[in-house]
Structure formats: structure tokens, C-alpha cells
Amino acid sequence: MENNSSGAPSVPADEPVFVNVTHMDRERYFEAVRARAKSGRNLALTAGGVIAAAVGLLMASRWVAVLGVVIFALTAASPGVIGRRDYSRLCERHPGGRWEKTVRFYPDRLETDDGNGNIAAAAYADIRRECAYKRMYVLDFGSGRPATAFDTEGFTKGSIDGLRDFLTEARRAAYDPAPDEADDAPTDA
User: Is residue 138 a contact partner of residue 132, using CB atoms and an 8 Å limit?
Assistant: First the structure.
């Protein structure tokens, strides 16, 4: 079997290149929540709230200081609050708060099986960001669909290092025109 440019083996489109099986529980789920909370937007809002509170105090403007404290508090608390809400919803679908989740990475898409036979597919171009925290790795798709989280040690085919390279190439390929399309494109001469 040949390797492609990312080092991952070349496989038919109907066979996964990487497979990850994660035994989700409360601890792993909240590790994924913490990974998502480290986003640039959350960090910027947290810093903005602190700065607004400090400026408000220096300017003797209670409203600006209170607004800064409110922004800081809401930004710091919202990932945990939303995480608890979503976890309780998941526990309704998975009694006992434990389930097996399988993520398969195909050459042209990724598929997630939630353990109840519900399979969701996504294109690599839909990934907005990747983040990690301890054992968990998260693919964030923005507000369009739920994020996909998986344990970095749960690979039954491939590894996290190979997956990172594969995702970089897959996302790049989604935005770069195919070689045949690039040759047919008009050029300014």
C-alpha cells in the first residue's frame, strides 16, 4: 500500500484511513469542554472583560467596570454551563453517562457513530478549528453542527500524529483547486 503526501496510507474512498474508538464518560467529556473553552474568542472576551473592568475603575465609571465584570463572568462560566446542559442531554441518550463513540476518517470525509447507530458525516472543509486538552482532541465545526471529540489514545487504526498531518492535507485540498481545474483556469497574461 502506498503512502500519500501526508504519510497516511492511500486507501480506497470507502475504507477509513484512521479509526478512533473512544469510551466517553463524564471526565473525557469535560476535558473536551475545557479544550473548546481555550478558543481565541473566549480568551479575547475574558481579557476584554478584565480590561474594561480595570478601565472603568480607573475612570471611576461604575457602568464600564460592571460591564467588564459581567463580560468576564459570563465568558468564564458559559463553557461549563453549556457543557453541563449538553452532558445531561447526552446522558438521556446514553443512560449511565458512558458510551462508545467511533470516529472514522475517510479520504473525503469523516463519520461519527454516537454508539446508538446514528452516523453523522462532515467534510474536512467544515472544520473551523482543532484543539486539544490532555487526552482529548476536538474538531470544532462552528455553529453548523456539534463538535467531534475523541481520545488521542483511542486509535484502532492510525495515530494522532498521522491524523494531524492528514487533516492538514485534507483541509488544504478542500480549499485548493484540483490540479486539473487549476490547469483549465484562465490566466492573466
Answer: yes
102-129 per-residue burial string, b: 16 or more CB within 10 A, e: under 16: bbbbbbebbbbebbeeeeeebebebbee
Q: Which single residue is written with the C-alpha cell 492511500? A: 10
- Write the CA distances from 92 to 19, 53, 105, 112, 132, integer angstroms: 26, 40, 27, 19, 26
For residue 50, count other CB atoms closer than 10 A to its CB.
15
Q: Residue 142, by phi and psi: left (phi above 0), alpha (psi -120 to 50) or beta?
A: left
Q: Which residues contact 171 (CB under 8 A, 6 or more apart)?
A: 124, 125, 127
Q: What is the pLDDT of residue 6?
A: 47
Tell me the percentage of the chain whose pLDDT exceeds 70. Answer: 80
Amino acid at position 72, single letter: F
Residue 103 backbone phi and psi in degrees, to 5: -120, 125
Q: Could you tell me where the DSSP H helices lie in the chain?
A: 26-37, 40-58, 62-93, 160-175, 179-184
SS3 state at 140: strand
Residue 40 has pLDDT above 70, yes or no: no
C-alpha–C-alpha distance, residues 116 and 24, integer Å: 13
pTM: 0.69
